[in-house]
Amino acid sequence: MAAPKPRVKVPKSAAAGEVITIKTLISHTMESGQRKDSSGNVIPRQIINKFTCEFNGKPVFSCDIEPAISANPYFEFTAKVMESGTFTFAWADDNGETYTHEQAIEVK
I need a labelling partner for 29 at 20 to 30 A (CA). Which of 17, 65, 82, 88 fits? Predict the structure, then answer.
């Protein structure tokens, strides 16, 4: 499997105090561990199990993810921005891998 590719949509700029919408999607098969391959062997569980978003090092949003979520998990949430800075997004999987993405926003 190729490394999961995060995609994030954050406005490039906002007014101080504005509530913005953030959209994230990561390409991942989210294998539940309950299916079998063509030889009848169980395909090992391999899911993204945690998602977090921080702004300038402070938590904005986080969630634990269970096997029932679909492939390519998508999250949409809002945040109020008071200053310019950087959002840091992280997705952690069952193998201990963490996939990160950063997106800056300018507050005018």
Answer: 88
Pairing of strands 74-81, 18-26: antiparallel
Answer whether 0.85 is exceeded by the pTM.
Answer: yes
Q: How many other CB atoms are found less than 10 A from the CB of residue 57? A: 8
- Residues forming beta bridges with residue 32, ordered by sequence position: none
Length of the chain: 108
Count other Cβ atoms within 10 Å, centred on residue 42: 10
Sign of CA dihedral 60, 6, 70, 1: negative
Token duo for residue 64? 């634990």
Amino acid at 70: S
Closest CA to 74 of 14, 11, 28: 28
Q: pLDDT of the chain along its 108 residues, tens only?
A: 567 889 999 999 999 999 999 999 998 888 878 888 999 999 888 889 999 999 999 999 999 998 778 889 999 999 999 999 999 999 999 889 999 999 999 999
